[in-house]
Amino acid sequence: MSKIAIFASGEGSNAREILRFLDNKNSGVHVSMLISNKTSAGIHKVAEEYSIPIQTFLNAEFTSGEKVVALLEEKEIEWIVLAGFLRKIETTILGKFENKIINLHPSLLPKYGGKGMYGRYVHQAVIEAQEPESGISIHLVNSEFDKGEILFQAKCSVKKGQTVEELAKKIQKLEHSFFPKVIEETVLASQ
Ligand code: GAR
Predict the structure, then answer these.
(1) What is the pLDDT of residue 26?
(2) Residue nearest ligand 1's atom 17 by CA
(3) Full domain range(s) for residue 134
(4) Could you tell me the CATH number of the domain that includes residue 134?
(5) Is there a contact between 5 and 82 (Cβ–Cβ < 8 Å)?
C-alpha cells in the first residue's frame, strides 16, 4: 500500500476525482491526507466529503519545507500529488520526495508553463496565440518550474472564437478523465 498526499490551493475538483476514483478500490494506492496553503479553498469541502484529514500551512512553511516534510514523514507518505497547487515546490520537500511528486498542468508542456502560468492565464495565453490545440500534461516535479519528466499528455482542439471558460471546461474534462488513472499507474509501477 502506497500512501499519497494531495496538495491543492483551489476548488479541489481534481482532488475530488482522485478520491472518487480510488475510493473503495483497494488498488494499493491510498490518499492519506490533503494539504493546502489556503484556509478558504474548496479543497476543505472535499476533505469533509471524504473524511480525509487536511492540514493548512503558511506559504513560508512551504518555502522552508521542514514542518511539511515532518508531517508527511510522520504519516508515512510516499508520494505527493499536486492537484492545482499554485506554489513552487522548494528544495527541502523536493529533496525528500525525489521523483515522487506528480503535477498536473493545463497545457501541452513545454508550451505555456512556468511562473505565472496557471489556471485561466494558461488558457488565455493559448487563445491569444491562436493555438489550434491545447491539452493537459502530467509530469514529475523537479527544481525547474513545469520542466520535469512528462508522464502523460492528452490533447483537445481549440476552436476559433472559443472563450477562456469554454476551453477551461474542455481541459477540466480531460483532467478528470485521465489524472486519477495516471496517478494510480505511476504509483503502482514504482511498488
Ligand atoms: C487545474 O486545471 C490544474 O491543471 C491547474 O489548476 C486547476 C486546479 O483545479 N494547475 C495549474 O495551473 C498548475 N500550474 P481544481 O482545483 O478544480 O482541481
Answers:
(1) 85
(2) 13
(3) 2-189
(4) 3.40.50.170
(5) no
What is the residue whose three cell numbers read 519528466? 149
Distance of alpha carbon 103 from alpha carbon 7, whole angstroms: 10
Q: Is the CB of 118 under 6 A from ligand 1?
A: yes
The CA 120 to ligand 1 mean position distance, Å, reads 9
Q: Which residues of the chain have pLDDT under 50?
A: none
Residue with cell 497545457: 107
Residue 25: what pLDDT?
85
Cβ-based burial of 39 (10 A; exposed 0-12, middle 13-18, buried ≥19): exposed
Query: Is 78 a pocket residue for ligand 1 (Cβ < 6 Å)?
Result: no
Q: Is the pTM of this model over 0.85?
A: yes
Angstrom distance (rounded) from CA 30 to CA 3: 5
pLDDT tens-digit readout, 28-47 = 999 999 999 999 889 999 99
The tally of domains found in the chain comes to: 1
Is any atom of ligand 1 closer than 6 Å to the C-beta of 119? yes
Atom of ligand 1 at shortest range from CA of 10: 16
Cα(106) to ligand 1 centroid in Å equals: 7
